[in-house]
Recover the amino acids of this structure.
């Protein structure tokens, strides 16, 4: 089993280069047909790592919820950006994700280096793009958990507003159930028009 110390290589590299506060950034919700994309940025203390932090996709919902609370209690700083479906439709999902990442970096004023999952970004502080970063970097993994739990909670709240789509279950992703309900009821205000045009007439 991988230990959290195995996930600190990128952070240690930045420390050797003189960085003191290293932020990890990740997103949740680039692929769904509905709802926002949520970006989280965290600066974690690297001398007090949280056991079990990993890519959020590898963790159960219960485990993510537990780790989320511990991450928030231990983090030096946390920032979350929520970019809604209307902006996603207007500027596309990649640019919406980048906008959220830049908002997080702006809110992490003390960060002197930023590790990002996959996305290449020009920012006011040095950034390192790491493919599969949420499985390789402790800081990015912590951010992935914050982003995923935050977005899941948003989708559960929206499910109460639009109960016919069952957003609490599939979180807006293009499951067969979601597509069936989308075709049955048509789109609602939180559906991404640029994503659903393959499934329904607009």
């Amino acid at each position: 089993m991988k230990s959290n110390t195995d996930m600190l290589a990128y952070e240690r590299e930045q420390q050797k280069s003189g960085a003191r506060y290293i932020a990890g950034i990740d997103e949740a919700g680039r692929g769904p047909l509905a709802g926002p994309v949520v970006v989280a940025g965290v600066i974690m203390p690297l001398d007090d790592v949280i056991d079990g932090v990993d890519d959020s996709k590898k963790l159960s919902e219960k485990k993510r919820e537990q780790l989320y609370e511990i991450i928030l209690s231990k983090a030096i700083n946390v920032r979350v950006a929520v970019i809604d479906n209307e902006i996603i439709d207007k500027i596309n999902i990649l640019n919406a994700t980048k906008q959220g990442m830049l908002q997080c970096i702006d809110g992490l004023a003390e960060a002197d280096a930023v590790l990002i999952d996959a996305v290449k970004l020009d920012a006011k502080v040095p950034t390192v793009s790491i493919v599969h970063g949420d499985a390789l970097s402790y800081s990015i993994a912590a951010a992935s958990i914050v982003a995923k739990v935050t977005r899941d909670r948003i989708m559960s709240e929206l499910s109460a507003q639009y109960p016919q789509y069952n957003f609490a279950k599939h979180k807006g992703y293009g499951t067969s159930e979601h597509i069936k309900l989308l075709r049955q009821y048509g789109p609602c205000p939180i559906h991404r028009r640029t994503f659903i045009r393959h499934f329904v007439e607009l």
